């Protein structure tokens, strides 16, 4: 592989500079992405067209020196395959036509066959991997069972997740059945991505941080640990690293690090140096610049990159990223500043 910094960093190995990629790096901030989405007709059609999904995955790599590509898809492909009727309203985000509101609704959910129901995703992975031609590694991903469950119960995003939390507290047995069913589907889904060519995987636990401490462990982390334990961990004679990212998950850092994962993704609400002190070298850390910094001037962006690198210090096991996904209004030129600053400043912290 021409550039394996990302995989080496996740393994805690020496690198010349800190690798960097960006959550939602293929997205609406790029004019070429907007053009391809228009060509597809809508977001979901873009996700379900392997050729176009490949194209938008590669677009940011043509502009920026990212050290990894991430599959272009959506976290809600599994509920959609379960017949929940995913659709997107302009300006409102994802919605479902069919909702989970009872134990019976859970029990009626079908088991999905990844090869049949989500072939468009694995076809895209195989195509992207071929087109990358060893230039950088390819990351596959899924939403966490808890995060998927919140969308399936709420019918979309939510301010307070009152319906999902009510379901959890009033019907914990049904919630566990739902999460168990989703955990199996996520495991099969990520393994299918690995078999199709993904070289690392990330589980996005976007809404784990809304839970109480005990509920997080019982209803979110437990199922992510179950997935990690069942994943294919080696392919093509190389380890397949797993990154767990819980937004607002800093309070559970040690517990997440003990889950069997290879890296913990951090949002911007925790100092990365303090996080490193708390868990030592047990796992790699990924993060964790506030995406809003990309709205600021180039000088501010460069200062923030330097500050995060200094906080992490002279050690292996850091993948630079944002603390959440890039937002659509960011100036694409500011992403160049960000990526170049990571590579420029981080060499000071590595021994090669």
Would you write up a description of this structure?
The chain is an alpha/beta fold and about 350 residues long. It folds into two domains: about 1-25 and about 275-350, no CATH class; about 70-265, TIM Barrel, CATH 3.20.20. The chain is about 50% helix and about 10% strand. It is built from 16 helices and eleven strands. It has a seven-stranded parallel β-sheet. It has a two-stranded antiparallel ribbon with strand order 2-3. Helix 15 (about 300-310) links the parallel strand 10 (about 285) and strand 11 (about 320). The two termini are about 20 Å apart. About 50% of the residues are buried.
- What gap, in angstroms, lies between the N and C termini? 18 Å
Q: How many β-strand runs? A: 11
How much strand content do the residues show? 5-15%
Query: How much helix, percentage-wise, in residues?
Result: 40-55%
Derived from helix and strand composition plus strand pairing, the structural class reads: alpha/beta
Keywords:
352 residues, alpha/beta, TIM Barrel, 2 domains, seven-stranded parallel sheet, two-stranded antiparallel ribbon, 16 helices, globular
